[in-house]
């Protein structure tokens, strides 16, 4: 890498008139064939709901392929784009209507933004099911924390709570090139 | 918790920066655990972020196209029947990845306060005037060279309750997508020479002054237009792409 990445900053409290939009949470119309609810609560270190968080999901199609369709901001209800955005409500709850991602050990990639959170957080919501124990990534997560990365199957949908801090803290991810606290390259 | 004074917050900021200077480590991103920004206390993860190699969906980013964004959305001064109040500005620059490659056809979203420092948000009760001709939301897609361009109004500073006499420096929020999901970011662009920046715990949460400076736009007289607006230039670098060059043909 030759360029230093621009630092992130919090979304602050006042994104509500800018980022959420009416069809953001509805990757498919609720109630349409195959539609599932993907939802949960965002909680802080005191176990209190975070009413000003913003959640984004990005997922493959039911066949497991990455989606290369545009139109997430102005949805054609017949086109699945794989990307959605939902703000939490006063109870810290978010809801998406989407399709189950396909492929081997599928997961939804999740991004968390909030006031008080100085940079976005990445995590994964794996679909529950057989074979998860064989997943090399999950196998590398300490046993007591692994389940924070696995959505809970319930009638009509999947529940995925996000705990920013404290007991049951969700496992958040960093990817290569994003590691905080590395030795400063010479010559900067 | 008793509300802190600016002197107290500034002392906390200074102590964290001194400790960082002695560490020899690079922290280009803000510290998630940054006590001078009080809202971070219960909202920062306490465990180390878990290393993951991007796989499958994370190696791709959502696509945005012409049906997602109207070209008029890049001009925040034409969204209502009249002209908004304040200093009209153009903000332009390029979005690149860590290797300097342009990020093409990706969504850039901005939001901001009006010239008086007031957001169009119900919870913003700062008693500064709302401008009926300014909402403060814009979108555009980057061009083939990764460039973006917005016409807007220079936002005003505004007070907040982090500590006694806390005022945020003027800033524009930016939301950015790269070519990989892992490049997703939200940040804030600041203006050069703002006296409030040194006092602001959000801006100062990036502990190295060289990294902080990456969030400050440059006044650019070549972007300024005669008898119309002043101009600012601000480039954004996302992290590197992890997809193999072979897989990037569609991007």
From TrEMBL, chain A:
<dbReference type="InterPro" id="IPR012786">
    <property type="entry name" value="Protocat_dOase_a"/>
</dbReference>
<keyword id="KW-0560">Oxidoreductase</keyword>
<dbReference type="GO" id="GO:0018578">
    <property type="term" value="F:protocatechuate 3,4-dioxygenase activity"/>
</dbReference>
<dbReference type="InterPro" id="IPR015889">
    <property type="entry name" value="Intradiol_dOase_core"/>
</dbReference>
<protein>
    <submittedName>
        <fullName>Protocatechuate 3,4-dioxygenase subunit alpha</fullName>
        <ecNumber>1.13.11.3</ecNumber>
    </submittedName>
</protein>
<dbReference type="InterPro" id="IPR000627">
    <property type="entry name" value="Intradiol_dOase_C"/>
</dbReference>
<dbReference type="Pfam" id="PF00775">
    <property type="entry name" value="Dioxygenase_C"/>
</dbReference>
<feature type="domain" description="Intradiol ring-cleavage dioxygenases">
    <location>
        <begin position="36"/>
        <end position="103"/>
    </location>
</feature>
<keyword id="KW-0223">Dioxygenase</keyword>
<comment type="similarity">
    <text>Belongs to the intradiol ring-cleavage dioxygenase family.</text>
</comment>
<dbReference type="InterPro" id="IPR050770">
    <property type="entry name" value="Intradiol_RC_Dioxygenase"/>
</dbReference>
From TrEMBL, chain B:
<dbReference type="InterPro" id="IPR000627">
    <property type="entry name" value="Intradiol_dOase_C"/>
</dbReference>
<comment type="similarity">
    <text>Belongs to the intradiol ring-cleavage dioxygenase family.</text>
</comment>
<dbReference type="Pfam" id="PF12391">
    <property type="entry name" value="PCDO_beta_N"/>
</dbReference>
<feature type="domain" description="Intradiol ring-cleavage dioxygenases">
    <location>
        <begin position="91"/>
        <end position="119"/>
    </location>
</feature>
<dbReference type="InterPro" id="IPR012785">
    <property type="entry name" value="Protocat_dOase_b"/>
</dbReference>
<dbReference type="GO" id="GO:0018578">
    <property type="term" value="F:protocatechuate 3,4-dioxygenase activity"/>
</dbReference>
<dbReference type="InterPro" id="IPR024756">
    <property type="entry name" value="PCDO_beta_N"/>
</dbReference>
<dbReference type="InterPro" id="IPR015889">
    <property type="entry name" value="Intradiol_dOase_core"/>
</dbReference>
<dbReference type="InterPro" id="IPR050770">
    <property type="entry name" value="Intradiol_RC_Dioxygenase"/>
</dbReference>
<dbReference type="Pfam" id="PF00775">
    <property type="entry name" value="Dioxygenase_C"/>
</dbReference>
<keyword id="KW-0223">Dioxygenase</keyword>
<protein>
    <submittedName>
        <fullName>Protocatechuate 3,4-dioxygenase subunit beta</fullName>
        <ecNumber>1.13.11.3</ecNumber>
    </submittedName>
</protein>
<keyword id="KW-0560">Oxidoreductase</keyword>
């Amino acid at each position: 890498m030759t360029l230093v990445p621009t630092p992130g900053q919090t979304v602050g409290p006042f994104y509500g008139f800018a980022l959420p939009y009416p069809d953001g949470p509805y990757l498919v119309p609720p109630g349409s064939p195959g539609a599932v609810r993907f939802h949960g609560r965002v909680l802080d270190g005191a176990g209190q709901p975070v009413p000003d968080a913003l959640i984004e999901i990005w997922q493959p199609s039911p066949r497991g392929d990455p989606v290369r369709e545009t139109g997430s901001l102005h949805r054609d209800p017949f086109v699945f784009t794989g990307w959605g955005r939902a703000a939490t409500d006063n109870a810290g709850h978010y809801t998406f209507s989407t399709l189950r991602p396909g492929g081997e050990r599928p997961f939804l990639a999740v991004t968390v933004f909030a006031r008080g959170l100085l940079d976005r957080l990445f995590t994964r919501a794996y679909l529950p099911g057989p074979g998860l124990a064989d997943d090399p990534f999950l196998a590398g997560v300490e046993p007591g924390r692994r389940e924070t990365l696995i959505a809970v199957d319930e009638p009509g949908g999947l529940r995925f709570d996000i705990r920013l801090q404290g007991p049951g803290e969700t496992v958040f991810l960093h990817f290569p090139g994003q590691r905080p606290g590395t030795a400063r390259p010479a010559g900067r | 918790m008793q509300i802190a004074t600016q002197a107290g917050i500034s002392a906390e900021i200074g102590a964290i920066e001194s400790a960082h200077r002695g560490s020899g480590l690079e922290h280009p991103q803000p510290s998630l655990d940054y006590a001078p920004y009080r809202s971070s206390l219960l909202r920062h993860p306490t465990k180390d972020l878990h290393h993951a190699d991007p796989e499958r969906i994370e190696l791709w980013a959502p696509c945005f196209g012409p049906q997602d964004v109207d070209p008029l959305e890049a001009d925040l001064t034409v969204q209502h029947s009249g002209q908004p109040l304040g200093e009209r500005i153009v903000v332009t620059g390029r979005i690149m990845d860590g290797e300097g490659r342009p990020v093409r056809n990706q969504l850039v979203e901005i939001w901001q306060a009006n010239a008086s420092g007031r957001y169009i948000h119900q919870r913003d009760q700062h008693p500064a005037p709302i401008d009926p001709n300014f909402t403060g939301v814009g979108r555009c897609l980057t061009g083939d060279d990764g460039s973006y361009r917005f016409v807007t109004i220079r936002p005003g500073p505004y007070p907040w309750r982090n500590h006694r006499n806390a005022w945020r420096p003027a800033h524009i929020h930016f939301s950015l997508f790269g070519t990989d999901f892992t490049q997703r970011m939200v940040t804030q662009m600041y203006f050069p020479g703002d006296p409030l920046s040194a006092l602001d715990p959000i801006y100062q949460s990036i502990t190295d002054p060289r990294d902080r400076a990456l969030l400050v736009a440059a006044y650019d007289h070549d972007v300024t237009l005669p008898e119309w607006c002043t101009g600012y230039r601000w480039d954004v670098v996302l992290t590197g792409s992890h997809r193999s060059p072979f897989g990037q043909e569609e991007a």
